[in-house]
From TrEMBL, chain A:
It comes from the Bacteria. CDD domains: STAS_RsbR_RsbS_like (cd07041). This is Anti-sigma factor antagonist. Residues 1-113 form the STAS domain. SUPFAM superfamilies: SpoIIaa-like. Pfam families: STAS. Coiled coil: none annotated.
Length: 132, 128
């Protein structure tokens, strides 16, 4: 069975979604991630969706679920790299991605996570991170 | 195209994209169309166990676009008006599928008879 790899980096977990997910892959990712948060005691989860050409209500719900579940497990979730066309579509669809933070790219996402768990970001030059 | 299992969704989306690219649809409109298609195909699988989807290129004098027709022989929808409301769902989803899909396209038509099935037709113009 295909799986999306979850990488661990210090206190964070990184996931790069590089293909369009069909449902089972997405729900697997959801449960894998939550177990990984538990096992590694991660404080943050970063999900890169820059390769996703569409996010429909199902995928949006999965992302939201991951955010809420991670929150209960004391971890913050940030979704990065959303394509402009995807953002436009999501809002028209009526999906607001509640429960997850968003950032423009991986770097800003990492800064946001570090900020959130109260650790000094390595570079303090930009603090343009989006918040809830 | 026949849609029978969840693995059919992505190839179908790719086909829609091929046609959209072929007629030169803008990226934003492509994304909207494919997202709407994805919602409707997913509905078809979830509530009717599958069905067929038809991709059609249409044009009038000035504009061209893509029409998608989804047909299933599932249980049908008892109250179509209610199903078109935001946040209404008989399943466990967010209830955004039908109303959301309608917002993303130019024309949206749904016909359903309980016990016989549902036909949804959507149209997205290249520009507009």
């Amino acid at each position: 069975m295909d799986r999306i790899p979850i990488l661990r980096m210090g206190k964070f977990l990184l996931v790069t979604i590089q293909i369009d997910l069909y449902d089972r892959l997405a729900t697997n990712l959801e449960s894998d991630l939550i177990q990984a948060v538990n096992k590694t005691e991660a404080r943050g989860v970063l999900i890169d969706i820059s390769a996703l050409s569409i996010v429909d209500s199902f995928m949006g719900r999965i992302l939201g679920n991951i955010g809420s579940m991670a929150k209960i497990m004391d971890a913050e979730t940030v979704v990065v790299g959303m394509q402009p066309a995807v953002a436009i579509t999501l809002i028209e669809l009526g999906l607001e991605l509640k429960g997850v933070h968003t950032a423009l790219n991986v770097e800003k996402g990492m800064d946001l996570l570090k900020d959130r768990i109260g650790e000094e970001p390595e570079e303090t030059e930009d603090d343009e991170n989006s918040t809830e | 195209m026949k849609i029978e299992k969840e693995q059919d969704v992505i190839p179908f989306r790719n086909r829609v994209k091929e046609y959209a690219v072929k007629i030169g649809m803008s990226l934003v409109n492509q994304t909207k169309l494919i997202t709407a298609a994805s919602e409707l195909v997913r509905n078809m699988l979830k509530y009717a166990g599958g069905g067929t989807a038809l991709i059609e290129v249409v044009s009038d004098n000035r504009n061209s676009g893509i029409r998608l027709l989804f047909e299933d022989r599932g249980p049908g929808i008892k109250d179509v008006d209610l199903a078109m409301k935001d946040g209404y769902s008989t399943g466990k989803s967010l209830g955004l599928g039908l109303p959301g899909a309608r917002r993303l396209v130019n024309e949206f038509d749904i016909k359903s008879k309980p016990g016989e099935g549902t036909i949804v037709s959507i149209l997205k113009w290249k520009n507009g």
